[in-house]
């Protein structure tokens, strides 16, 4: 594995807000097809870390490399254009639009009706919705239904589908299972497994150790802004992770 | 980076196929709710038809004069409501439209009077039309800047502009109506093509363009997205500020067109031209199926909503009922319309989680 260039490489990243060291000297790698869990108590720096990676703010020091190339994003849009997509806890879907409308939100495809009149290419959006969602094993028959008609897990799938369609290489998922019932949580876990088989890298933030152990390859534990430890999931236990989190 | 897209058969069985609930979601209730404005319209027309036949032995809707009058009657409220539809879908409201219409009516009258000697009648009308719409765009721009840059709530920002536009319009009109002396303008306002009034044709074409803008373009799509979830729209890279600015300019221009057609019809500009129409425009949008919380609504629904109001107002006069019943009827229709909307949400909105 170490011979392959990591998809994402973060080296000694720090973020200080005035005198507060929200994040200090954190390094991590994500390889293709790998799911890396980010764990830690509230305020441990998980959110700060992903925000620094996804361009919400610039790190105070340190470096982010994407496929070996150093990158520096000033906006989340730039990060997304380069293939780093963040899927937020509260989904960020427009409930009144179709799956296709959400996938293409902000970059809608157009066609020319009667040879001159530019109109939204709804067929292209519907087709893309169908094929993308099929890749995530979610078979949509009614592509013109607004996403408010779908269940929580299915909507999570739509948010992931948008990232997949735009060929995100690294998906950052902030508590993707937090607002869901148990069967829906399982569905999201199986979605993450799909992303893994497609060779994408996933950074998975969760409080739920069961979910973390179900899907991750490695776990990075943060505590008060610094790395408390990094373990392979196959070589650690719930107890050890909890000890790392609370500093026992 | 080549992602292995070749899914093995085992992968497909690993994650179970998910049922598509949307199939069942479109219930009968929802279909009726979607069409409610048109059903209202149909019921009203039938009701007045029966009433007319029983009490006068005459016809209501088959009388071409009545149709013409209703259509002319609906022109100004429909134009305001078209702009209002865009604003309400985005989650805002534009209270200044009525007096922007009055302002445009007065400006059109003055401009055409001033330009007619120098440019001749048709050119003066064209220039006057452009000047009036451009002047209408000024309060629209200010509304847009207030809402988008300064984050003033639309209700308050446009309420302020309601007062400003009102005052400016009355000042420009000198507190009275401004008669226009241009027979070409009067011809536009009162002439007909194959017995369809010109102003109805102009309005129909304009509303069709607005329907296209809302339903077929990125601008329209983004408008729906912003009304549903501003955060999502922003994260998707939509420039919210510039969208809102353009949105309020657009609605003001709709009101501007309404003002110009008003002056053409009455051959005079009046500052109070749109005063009673503001709330009618909101009512038309709501009857047409939009939610005041934003995110839903269509131009086609608004057209039906505007005609519901026009038919009630004209029909009650036609069957010789005291005019005050108009207010009661329109009010009742608004309330029923909102009740249907809520019932629909209760029936179909509850997502069936597995």
Protein chains sharing the most extensive interface: A-B, 54 and 45 residues
Strand order of the main beta sheet of chain A, please?
6-9-10-3-11-12
Strand order, sheet with most strands of chain B: 1-4
| Count of individual domains of chain B | 1
User: What summary fits the major beta sheet of chain A?
Assistant: 6 strands, mixed
Structural class of chain B: mainly alpha
User: How many strand elements of chain B?
Assistant: 4
Largest sheet of chain B: 2 strands, antiparallel
- CATH architecture type of chain B: Orthogonal Bundle
Give Rg of chain A in angstroms.
19 Å
Q: Secondary-structure element sequence of chain B? A: HHHHHHHHEHEEHHHHEHHH
* CATH topology term of the largest domain in chain A: Rossmann fold
The CATH topology name of chain B reads ABC transporter involved in vitamin B12 uptake, BtuC
CATH superfamily of the largest domain in chain A: P-loop containing nucleotide triphosphate hydrolases
Query: Approximately how much beta-strand content do the residues of chain B carry?
Result: under 5%
Note the overall shape of chain A. globular
- What is the string of SSEs of chain A from the N terminus onward? EEEHEEHEHEEHHEHEHEEH
Name the average pLDDT of chain A.
87
CATH C-level class of chain B: Mainly Alpha
Quaternary structure type:
heterodimer
Spatial separation of the terminal alpha carbons of chain B: 36 Å
């Amino acid at each position: 594995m170490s011979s392959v260039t990591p998809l994402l490489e973060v080296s000694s990243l720090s973020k200080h807000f005035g005198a507060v060291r929200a994040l200090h000297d954190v390094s991590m790698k994500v390889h293709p097809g790998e799911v890396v869990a980010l764990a830690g108590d509230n305020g441990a720096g998980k959110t700060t870390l992903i925000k620094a990676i996804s361009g919400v703010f610039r790190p105070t020091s340190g470096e982010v490399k994407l496929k070996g190339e150093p990158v520096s994003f000033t906006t989340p849009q730039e990060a997304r254009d380069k293939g780093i997509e963040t899927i937020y806890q509260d989904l960020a879907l427009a409930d009144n639009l179709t799956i296709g409308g959400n996938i293409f939100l902000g970059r809608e495809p157009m066609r020319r009706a009667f040879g001159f009149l530019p109109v939204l290419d709804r067929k292209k959006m519907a087709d893309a919705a169908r094929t993308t969602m099929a890749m995530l094993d979610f078979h949509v028959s009614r592509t013109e239904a607004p996403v408010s008609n779908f269940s929580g897990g299915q909507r999570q799938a739509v948010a992931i589908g948008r990232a997949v369609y735009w060929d995100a290489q690294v998906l950052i998922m902030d508590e993707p299972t937090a607002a869901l019932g148990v069967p829906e949580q399982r569905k999201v876990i199986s979605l993450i497994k799909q992303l893994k088989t497609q060779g994408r890298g996933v950074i998975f933030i969760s409080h739920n150790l069961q979910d973390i152990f179900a899907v991750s390859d490695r776990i990075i534990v943060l505590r008060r802004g610094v790395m408390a430890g990094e373990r392979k999931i196959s070589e650690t236990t719930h107890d050890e992770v909890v000890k790392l989190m609370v500093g026992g | 980076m080549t992602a292995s897209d070749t899914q093995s058969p085992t992968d497909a069985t690993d994650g179970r196929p998910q049922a598509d609930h949307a199939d069942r979601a479109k219930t009968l209730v929802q279909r009726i709710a979607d069409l409610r404005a048109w059903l209202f319209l149909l019921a009203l027309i039938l009701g007045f038809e029966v009433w007319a036949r029983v009490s006068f032995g005459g016809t209501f809707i088959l009388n071409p004069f009545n149709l013409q009058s209703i259509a002319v009657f609906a022109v100004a409220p429909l134009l305001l409501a078209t702009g209002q539809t865009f604003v309400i879908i985005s989650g805002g409201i534009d209270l200044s439209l009525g007096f922007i219409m009055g302002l445009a009516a007065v400006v059109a009258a003055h401009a055409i009077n001033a330009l007619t000697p120098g440019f001749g009648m048709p050119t003066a009308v064209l220039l006057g039309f452009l000047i009036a719409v451009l002047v209408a765009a000024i309060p629209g721009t200010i509304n847009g800047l207030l809402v988008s840059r300064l984050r003033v709530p639309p209700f308050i920002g446009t309420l302020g502009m309601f007062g400003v536009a009102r005052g400016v319009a009355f000042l420009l009109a000198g507190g009275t109506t401004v008669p226009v002396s241009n027979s070409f303008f009067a011809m536009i306002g009162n002439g007909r093509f194959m017995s369809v009034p010109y102003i109805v044709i102009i309005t129909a074409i304009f509303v069709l363009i607005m329907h296209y803008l809302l339903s077929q373009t990125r601008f329209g799509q983004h408008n729906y997205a912003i009304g549903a979830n501003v955060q999502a729209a922003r994260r998707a890279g939509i420039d919210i500020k510039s969208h809102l600015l353009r949105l309020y300019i657009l609605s003001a221009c709709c009101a501007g067109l309404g003002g110009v057609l008003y002056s053409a019809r009455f051959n005079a500009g009046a500052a109070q031209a749109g005063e009673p129409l503001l709330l009618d425009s909101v009512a038309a949008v709501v009857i047409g199926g939009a939610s005041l919380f934003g995110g839903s609504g269509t131009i086609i629904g608004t057209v039906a909503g505007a005609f519901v109001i026009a038919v009630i107002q004209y029909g009650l006069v036609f069957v010789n009922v005291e005019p005050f019943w108009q207010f009661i009827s329109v009010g009742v229709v608004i309330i029923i319309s909102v009740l249907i909307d809520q019932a629909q949400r209760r029936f179909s909105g509850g997502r069936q989680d597995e």
